[in-house]
Design brief:
Length: 108
């Protein structure tokens, strides 16, 4: 015999809707906070410094002028890629850590 599903009572639905609304507000607030926070990731012993927001917006790239004296374009490109990818990974982790408990694993 199939298991019987009990529908929530009228008062329970209102409480559930209020909880969902609060959760939505918390998600929006957390996303706004992430957009304001920055993190810095470096590569090449600090020769390349990338600043990214918690919502994955690149806001600054700093290159040590000493690195440019050698004119090694491939090295510079590799270091920038390494720094940007590292910063993106750190930013995604920060967002997942903050949004995960609120979203119950839903992708954002």
């Amino acid at each position: 015999m199939p298991k019987k599903f009990n529908m929530p009572q009228k008062g329970q639905m209102g409480g559930l809707m209020q909880q969902m609304q609060r959760l939505q507000e918390q998600l929006v607030q957390t996303q706004e906070q992430l957009a304001q926070e920055t993190l810095v990731h470096t590569a090449g012993g600090g020769a390349i410094k990338i600043t990214l927001t918690g919502d994955q917006r690149l806001v600054a790239v700093e290159i040590d002028p000493e690195l440019l004296k050698d004119s090694d374009t491939e090295l510079l490109q590799d270091l920038i890629l390494t720094a940007v990818n590292g910063a993106l990974e750190a930013s995604r982790k920060m967002a997942a850590d903050r949004l995960g408990p609120l979203s119950g694993g839903l992708p954002f």
